[in-house]
Amino acid sequence: HKIDTETTTPNFASGTSESVRMIISGVPGMARPQINVTSPFIQFRGNATANTRNWVTIENLNVTDTSVGSGGSCIFQVIGNHIRIQHANIADAWSEAICTHRADVVPVTSDLHLNDLHVTNPGRDGLGYSLYGSGTDDVLVENSYLEGLQQVLQFTSSVPGQFPKRPVIRNNYLKGLNHNGLCNGIASESPGTLVYNNIFEGCTGGATNGAAIVIGYNGNQGQSLEAYNNTIFNWKASGIQVGLFNVSGPTTAIIRNNYFYNNGNGTTLACYQTFNSTTVTIDHNAAVSGTSSCGTNKVTITDLSSAFVSSSDLRLKLGTNPAVDAGVSVQ
User: Fold this and answer.
1) How far apart are CA 147 and CA 325, in angstroms?
2) Cα gap 79→134, rounded to integer Å
3) Which listed residue, of 75, 172, 179, 259, carries a Cα 20 to 30 Å from 23's Cα?
4) CA dihedral 92, 95, 97, 101 (to 10 degrees)
5) How far apart are CA 288 and CA 260, in angstroms?
6) Contact status, residue 309 vs residue 318, Cβ threshold 8 Å
7) Helix/strand/coil for 210
8) What are the pLDDT digits (tens) for 25-69?
């Protein structure tokens, strides 16, 4: 399905469910077509007796959800293998921008690649994720700007025994929105969660709890995190939370080479918090003075002008920064 004008509605119905090797695309080299939709807009899904959908690419689109009331849902509901959603702007999702969950689905989604997305204002229902990944294996999220209310990205399971595995989140800007209560960047109950080279901007408004990354979110299996080279600021509880809920399997984390600024409850700043039975390796992180729980070989930042550039006063050059060359190589 090729969409070749700026305002044309695609020539398939809302809720389309089709099979293998589909490409839904604007025309490369033209302005991305603007499509106003009611969610769910596109559904690729299997069920307990049908095969899941394979080799689906959605790209080069601007999509805005105009749903009103409880009839809204996530915009792209994809369940299958080898799914690509890329080079797209996705705005005003009633709930999630992208979701991979359905209660009646037995097969998991695997090889989901989200690239070069700009997701704004999801969650007019009060929750709102850029991605709700349930039972999803081998997810890659990269090179994107992503917003969220309760969570920006969540990796969980709505089907017993189908826990997500091996999500990789890299080279993104993740921003929490104005939320009253809990607000996280990434919440994962997955083994092998790898998070690196991202910027996490904390939630505004009345958010009272939450962290940039939460591992050990729910579930009954071993869960693990590796977090490298991220910049994490303005989260309400701490930068990273490990083992938040008492899962039956071990929860482990490696936290290394990250920048932490202003993450805490207003009186205590913390790089991370640990709960229940966890094993955490944390070292070679940088944080402002007064920040606790940053591990060994911590670099303390006393002069913000040396640590961060500032666009507000056009200060775009770092000063003498003690974090330069203070990290270690990671693989």
Assistant:
1) 31
2) 10
3) 172
4) -170
5) 7
6) yes
7) coil
8) 777 667 777 888 777 777 765 443 344 556 788 888 888 888 876
